[in-house]
Amino acid sequence: MENEISPKNRRQFLKYMVFGTAGTVALGWIFPQRSLGHERSNSATPCTSDGNSEACQNYLRGVKATDSSGNHIQESVLLTTAVSGRPVLVKGLSKPTYLVINDGPKLAEYAINPTCPHHGCTVEWKTDRNKFVCPCHGAQFDAQGKVLKGPTHRNLPLITVVVQDDDIFLIDRKPAVDPRT
Ligand code: FES
To answer: Shortest CA distance to 90 belongs to which of 118, 62, 117?
Structure first.
């Protein structure tokens, strides 16, 4: 028959199959890191253990912090007027965010989400009282968001801050370590 495969062609076909498969396996052995690295860069796993690692900065850069007019805030400019222990209100995420200013003054690697852990009202920073105060039931928190007075016993939630090329990025994820505990 015309369509019948000759033994010679069958042998050649089998030879291609064997060498083709072996070649594919060999390439996988030679370049395993590249494919693993790709998976890692798309994985959230490293960012939950170390939110400020280089891998996390590439994975989830967050949104740039802006002032009330929508202008991006540069860290170097912010620190020329920032006062240690006085949180700075910024925009960028769906809720306002307070950057934390440590001694130096230095920008902390975390910021405060002003959602009261009691019933979800938005707390406000009171410079004259040097604390956050909740307008609903009077809870109070210090400049790092640590609870000072109830009715709640919980601290204010935190988000992660990353600075890249002088831009301040807000990442809506709690830092790997809560510096208040
Ligand atoms: S909602 Fe803040 S104290 Fe109740």
So the answer is: 62
Q: Could you state, in order of their start, the residue ranges of all structural domains in the chain?
A: 62-171
Q: How many Cα atoms sit within 13 Å of 56 on the Cβ side? A: 23
Of 116, 124, 154, the residue with max ligand 1 atoms within 8 A of its CB, to mutate for a pocket test, comes to: 116
Among left, alpha and beta (phi > 0; psi -120 to 50; other), residue 61 is alpha
For the entire predicted model, the pTM comes to 0.68
Cα of 59 to ligand 1 centre, how many Å?
35
CATH architecture of 62-171: 3-layer Sandwich (2.102)
Task: Encode pLDDT of 108-155 as tens digits.
Answer: 999 999 999 999 999 999 999 999 999 999 999 999 999 999 899 999
Query: In the chain, count of helices (H) and strands (E)?
Result: 5, 10
Which atom of ligand 1 is nearest the CA belonging to 139?
3
